[in-house]
Amino acid sequence: MAAGVLSDGLEFGTLLTLRSGGQTVNAAYYTLVTKNLPRGEAFRVVLSGLFAPAGPVRLEIEYTLRLNDRADPRAGESAFSVMLAGEDGAVLRGEPGRVCFSGFSVYRGIAIPEERKSNPVYGACFSLYRNPELTERMAFREVEEDVFLACTAAGCSHTRHEYLLRTRASGTIFVSGLPEGVYYLREIPRTRSAAPAAEGMEIVVTAEGEVFAGGMELRDGRLQLIDWLASETSGEGDDPVLTFYENGCKVMACLLGIMMLGKKRLLG
């Protein structure tokens, strides 16, 4: 018998292949058990006595795993191992392996030059894609406030996934559970006229857990997307919305002055 032992952050996916001596074992010679198992075991492969001739054999088990809701988004890894038990009751536990994953945070803010810090944007929406054409959107589930854990969304037990990741009061989201690979970040504008801060920005996760955004390494794991609004003294290139607001205030002040002057004349 072979049993899979997984940490709390992992769950069994599917059994892909069972080989003995380099040859695929006929499915009639083993049984896969995934329910009513002792605590700590995720699956069992119970072998028939006919699956291989007597004597030592090399057994290969290929299976898939996925992160579950008990995975620690900031831990960066979860452990797994296979335990073998013979007819004599002897137990041999294999050396544990590691499933490594990475994450990064995205901060969305607005600032003007006079301010020393930016103001977080509430309700900014982001999606992460698997391809540069931005057609294969990744699925997530929110495990903590503003913390999203990646999910395969294939054969999982979840009834709901998040494909649009929204910021809250902090203006920040934390994305975790990403294996090594290349991803693409896109901000979904709230209005048609708004320009997104990221339109397919390339995110690279290395095997060592390093994260690069737009070719630059995120040493602190934090990607900052900040819009700088033009100040009153910046001259050309002023933000049109801010300029319209300022001009509107000036017009209102003039109108109030005229009204007060007219009122004085009537009273006089």
Summarize the structure.
With 268 residues, the chain is mainly beta.
Series of secondary-structure elements, N-terminal to C-terminal = EEEEEEEEEEEEEEEEEEEEEH
Beginning-to-end CA distance, first to last residue = 105 Å
Strand composition percent: 35-45%
- What is the count of DSSP helices, taking H or I runs of 4+ residues? 1
Largest sheet: 6 strands, antiparallel
Notes on the protein architecture:
By secondary structure, this protein is mainly beta. The chain is built from 1 helix and 21 strands. The chain has one helix at 240-267, and strands at residues 2-6, 10-20, 23-24, 30-33, 41-47, 59-67, 77-85, 91-93, 97-100, 102-111, 119-120, 125-129, 139-144, 147-151, 165-166, 172-178, 181-188, 199-205, 211-213, 216-217, 222-228. Strands 1, 4, 5, 7, 8 and 9 form a 6-stranded antiparallel beta sheet that branches. Strands 10, 11, 13, 14, 16 and 21 form a 6-stranded mixed beta sheet that branches. A 6-stranded antiparallel beta sheet has the order 15-12-17-18-19-20, with no helix packed on it. The radius of gyration is 29 Å and the shape is elongated. The model is unreliable at 233-268 (pLDDT under 50).
